[in-house]
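When time allows, look over one protein, given below as sequence and tokens. The question is which stretches look regular and which look disordered:
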Amino acid sequence: MPVNTPLVSVIIPCYNAERYIAETLDSVFAQTYPAIEVLVVDDGSSDNTVRIAKSYNVRLIQQKNRKVSAARNNGIRQSRGKYVLFLDHDDRLLPGAVEVGVRVLEQHPECVMAVGEHRYIGSNGEPLGRSGKNVAGRDPYLELLEHNFVETPCSALHRRSSLFTAGMFDESIFGAEDHELYLRLARCGSIIAHDEEVAEYRQHESNSSRDASMMLEVSNRVMQMQLPYVQDDQEKLEHHQKGVRFVARRFGRQLTRQLIEEKRALKPENRERLELLRNHYTPGFAAAVLSRLLPDSVLDRLLGAYSNQAKAG
């Protein structure tokens, strides 16, 4: 290891990750940066995750199932690096990811976090496009109020000391815990965005963001948590209001489509989901209720419209 090369801790939280964990670990060990420690935090897996992790040169940390925020926090506490990168068990780093992030943060000691671009890949690794965040030069806090432009945690490198200053992950939040942390970090210090691609974000049916009802509820909770910090600043408040509308459209449309597709007698869980729409996305609530009265031909057109809206975000 070269002298004065800061150590980077790559923290990988895992729960029943046997399908992708080897690919993820391979991407870490292919890094061009020489000073990396890898911490795999197993969150009570019942499959072959632990066996696969043990076949690599990693620090394996095992805990009872407490979800991703607790696993990440456990990893932070046991890490030794100057910098920390959070890598989900199904995503992959590009070879220069750590090197780029360290270079940016070393050049900008005032920054708590460096965020790069990422690619989207499918369940089998097929390319699906580029993130195109285009945040470089903008105010990251205002951008984060509108939406979580970071998207995948592995596109960001963190200054470890800043994670302790900000308070680490809120373990009571699941589904938008990373967005909530980024907002706190942006209030603690500067975030710098750059345009180099650093990661691959895998899209598949098990992504937590596919659970529209959970994401609608928890994302609105995160937005409500920001109000004390923006309500006396008109510019921040306007960006916050855009963020609330973005959450309603993105997850409200997704949930509306799910409820319309079901078109069946309301079960208790569907009544709860309808109530979420009524509270946060009234057009979707009206469409979901009306769908139970529509003929199939009209319903198909309605589903097509919501499908196109969901793709447009």
Summary: The longest strand covers residues 190-202.
